[in-house]
Amino acid sequence: MAALEQELKEAYTHSLEYTRYGEVASYIPELARKDSSKLGAAICTLDGERFAAGDCDERFTLQSISKLVTLILAIEQNGQEYVFTKVGYEPTGDSFNSLVRLDSLTKNKPYNPLINAGAIAVTSCIRGIDLKSRKQTALAFAKKLFGSEEIRFNENVYASEMATTWKNRAIVNLMKSNGVIESNDLEDILDLYVSMCSIEVTCRELAEFAALLANNGRRVGSGEQLIPVKIIKLVRSLMVTCGMYDYSGEYASQVGIPSKSGVGGGILAAAIGKMGIAVYGPSLDRTGNSIGGLRILSYLSEHLDLNMF
After folding, report:
1. Which residue of the set 34, 38, 67, 135 is catalytic?
2. Same topology for domains 2-63+201-304 and 64-197, yes or no?
3. CA–CA dist 197, 44 (Å, integer)
């Protein structure tokens, strides 16, 4: 495994210089304070080997990566059939926070669960007696998937996003008006959605979740089946087609690993049957993906033959 560790270090070194070409997510004030030069990566193989490089212990918020957690939880609570009455399976080619397709004469529900509108619709399916209980349930579920009791909501990022999430407020109100969202507690739905985005992790913790997805829902080491295989296959297929915002198609052809990114700078990549990879770099490209992180994943995909296609 020394060779794998060396490949990760070389991928990190190769990619570090590219961080200067992007920008942090300045539209969220708390994220605008991040150091754009940070870059880290971690690998968890399905044999239980773990390696890391760079700023692998830097804590960052999941942002859109949390959409995977929300989707899995919603399906476990309600079943796939019900959840997908609220959202579709198809990529859009639009930006992640677009609402242009939500007021169509032919299709009002969001196209997929990995854009903001779709994730908000899925969030409305999370069960609990009140907002507090739903947040507790969702965070506990995330801790189980990441295999860590250390992760938590970042209250500063949460407050920063809640104060500036005007477009998401428009999205949730539009979906209420066209019947996608049944509840009248729109602010609670938005609160839970933003809370999930604010979950804070390290690359090491994110790599554990990535390995869980790569290992058909079984915990690396114990072999415990935490997520049904049927749900895993659904989630991974959506990661391939929709997981990297409107860069998903090009990313699939060039890197070929089911992945999900977030504007916090994280990217989760699940190399099926091989390993989970997590990268972090808050310097983003024009599509909202980590520039340095993309370089690391492209390097590893080529040098370790991880392209599933």
Report:
1. 67
2. yes
3. 23
Q: From residue 258, give the alpha-carbon distance in Å to each of 6, 104, 255, 289, 303.
A: 23, 30, 9, 14, 17
Torsion from C-alpha of 207, 205, 232, 142, nearest 10 degrees: -170
pLDDT given at position 220: 95
Residue 22 is which amino acid?
G
67 is a catalytic site residue: yes
In the set 195, 263, 279, 301, the catalytic residue is 263
Top-tier CATH class for 2-63+201-304: alpha beta
Does 89 qualify as catalytic in the annotation?
no
- 3-state secondary structure (DSSP) of residue 201: strand
pTM for this entry: 0.94
> What is the rounded CA–CA span in Å between residue 97 and residue 74?
21
Is residue 21 flagged as an active site residue? Answer: no
**Catalytic residue list contains 15:** no
According to CATH, what is the number of the domain 64-197? Answer: 3.40.710.10
The pLDDT averaged over each successive group of 10 residues in the chain (309 residues) is 88 95 92 95 96 96 98 98 94 56 62 94 96 97 96 96 93 92 95 98 98 97 95 97 92 96 97 98 95 97 95
Q: Report the pLDDT value the prediction gives residue 105, as an integer from 0 to 100.
A: 43
Catalytic residue among 245, 251, 280, 299: 245
Instruction: Indicate the domain borders of the chain.
Output: 2-63+201-304, 64-197
Q: Distance between CA atoms of 273 and 264, rounded to whole angstroms?
A: 27
193 is catalytic: yes
Torsion of CA 74, 77, 82, 86, to 10 degrees: -20
